């Protein structure tokens, strides 16, 4: 058996096994399992090496005489996402998460073979929900990734002066440090960059699906237990002896305890990952919206031209444009306000406060 049979885990299990993320594979073949482990180690090591190069490039950008805000924020957003996916990868290979996967496989088999029709229907409804969300994760993730890969060909490329000539600077999808001259060996660097991005997207998308599936399973078991508790008080159970009711309720208590143990195991294995996920989501949201503040530079861009030699009506339009461009574009946060520099600082403060609270309470 290459992979275990399981409907809930099917999509993320098959996808994550293509790049060494799935831990339960080749159970009956130790030789193939060792080969798979070596394959997984090589990919994980290479991905860590890419993340290190990305962080090094970030330090290079921050030390530059002229800060490239767009590349800095783009680097930070993508690199944080990839970093969290590596924490997830480490968690998925821990004994605790393997126990969770085995629990899902065992419980689903029991439900499909031994449970009553109502319980099967409840579980099958969660199978459908999980299947739909897995497809959404997959297609949305890869659509965004592909658009990111092709965006260097869809934007206006920057230029620079070299030997009294204006030279177009070709850019890559992902910001990372390169041991080669990117401009001289652009297509080699681009293909290399696409490989890095494809591997990174695979880790991110599939780890999201696996994490979501772990949570969906817990929800399915809570709903099944809720159904059994409601049924326990129904009239068809009246008239039966006390021992029957006692045994039935004890079995429900055991199911509840099993769910509690599952959640506790999940928290022990994933709580730090969830913390880092929260941190990177907060910082990522703030850094993405900060890029909209660049819209204020549009006023300076038009001001630096020979606008004053234009006709009066054109100058009036330029003045209106300058006035509007000095108001930054903003994302609204529901009815509560908008993203701004102050909001960015507030998010960082709140993130730090949450992290300190988490560390103090868990210690």
TrEMBL record:
Question: From the UniProt record, which GO molecular function terms apply?
Answer: odorant binding; olfactory receptor activity
Q: Where in the cell is it found?
A: Cell membrane
Membrane topology classification: Multi-pass membrane protein
Which GO CC annotations does the UniProt entry carry?
Answer: plasma membrane
Q: Does the keyword Transit peptide apply?
A: no
Q: Which residues form the signal peptide?
A: none
- Which residues are listed as membrane-spanning? 35-52, 72-89, 131-150, 203-225, 329-348
Q: Name one GO biological process term.
A: signal transduction
Primary location:
membrane
The alphabetized UniProt keywords are: Cell membrane, Membrane, Olfaction, Receptor, Sensory transduction, Transducer, Transmembrane, Transmembrane helix
Family the UniProt entry places it in: Belongs to the insect chemoreceptor superfamily. Heteromeric odorant receptor channel (TC 1.A.69) family.
Q: Any idea what this protein is called?
A: Odorant receptor
Biological source species:
Ceutorhynchus assimilis (cabbage seed weevil)
Q: Taxonomically, what lineage is the organism? A: Eukaryota, Metazoa, Ecdysozoa, Arthropoda, Hexapoda
């Amino acid at each position: 058996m290459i992979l275990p049979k399981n409907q809930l885990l099917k999509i993320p299990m098959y996808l994550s096994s293509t790049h060494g993320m799935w831990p339960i594979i080749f159970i009956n073949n130790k030789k193939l399992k060792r080969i798979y482990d070596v394959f997984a180690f090589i990919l994980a090591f290479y991905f860590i090496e890419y993340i290190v190069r990305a962080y090094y490039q970030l330090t290079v950008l921050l030390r530059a005489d002229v800060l490239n805000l767009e590349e800095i924020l783009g680097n930070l957003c993508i690199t944080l996402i990839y970093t969290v996916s590596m924490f997830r990868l480490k968690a998925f290979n821990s004994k605790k998460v393997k126990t969770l996967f085995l629990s899902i496989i065992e419980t689903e088999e029991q439900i499909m073979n031994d449970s009553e029709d109502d319980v099967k229907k409840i579980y099958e409804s969660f199978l459908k929900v999980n299947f739909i969300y897995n497809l959404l994760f997959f297609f949305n993730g890869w659509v965004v990734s592909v658009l990111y890969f092709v965006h260097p060909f869809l934007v206006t490329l920057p230029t620079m002066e070299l030997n009294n000539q204006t030279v177009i600077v070709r850019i890559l999808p992902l910001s990372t440090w390169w041991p080669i001259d990117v401009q001289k060996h652009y297509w080699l660097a681009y293909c290399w960059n696409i490989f890095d991005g494809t591997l990174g997207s695979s880790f991110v998308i599939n780890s999201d699906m696996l994490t979501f599936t772990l949570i969906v399973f817990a929800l399915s078991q809570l709903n099944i237990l809720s159904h059994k508790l409601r049924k326990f008080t129904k009239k068809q159970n009246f008239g039966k002896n006390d021992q029957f009711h006692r045994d039935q309720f004890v079995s429900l208590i055991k199911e509840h305890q099993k769910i509690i143990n599952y959640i506790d195991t999940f928290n022990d294995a994933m709580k730090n990952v969830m913390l880092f996920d929260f941190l990177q989501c907060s910082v990522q949201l703030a850094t993405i919206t900060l890029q909209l503040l660049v819209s204020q530079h549009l006023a300076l861009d038009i001001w630096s031209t020979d606008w004053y030699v234009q006709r009066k009506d054109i100058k009036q339009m330029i003045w209106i444009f300058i006035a509007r461009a000095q108001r930054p574009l903003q994302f609204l946060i529901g009815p509560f306000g908008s993203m701004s520099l102050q909001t960015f600082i507030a998010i960082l403060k709140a993130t730090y406060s949450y992290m300190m609270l988490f560390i103090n309470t868990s210690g």
